[in-house]
Write a structure and sequence with these properties.
single chain, mainly beta, Immunoglobulin-like, four-stranded antiparallel beta sheet, 4 strands, elongated
């Protein structure tokens, strides 16, 4: 019978030294028969993170969870954010403004 375990992942998005977004996700993992939650397994899931101007031009994603024995498991990745401004900007080729 497959073994089921729920993991609680936390994430933080940092940019320019500030935490600009954080949250958590639950992921239900179903292991192979005879699998123990302590046995390393590979699984994947998606985290949708809306970008905003505070993340431009580069963001840093940290995802982590705490195992039942207290060990913290973490991974990070960098990502680029392009064309994301706080204010609406017009193209100067449209000068003079209507």
């Amino acid at each position: 019978m497959p073994v089921s375990h729920m993991y609680y992942f936390n994430f933080q998005v940092m940019s320019k030294g500030d935490i600009v977004q954080n949250g958590h996700r639950h992921h239900h993992f179903v292991g192979k028969p005879g699998h123990s939650p302590a046995t390393p397994q590979v699984a994947s899931f998606h985290i949708d993170i809306p970008t905003n101007y505070r993340m431009a031009s580069e963001g840093h994603l940290l995802v982590y969870y705490v195992q039942d024995d207290g060990e913290v498991v973490a991974d990070t990745m960098d990502f680029n954010v392009e064309k994301c401004l706080q204010n609406q900007v017009r193209n100067l080729d449209q000068w003079p403004l209507p």
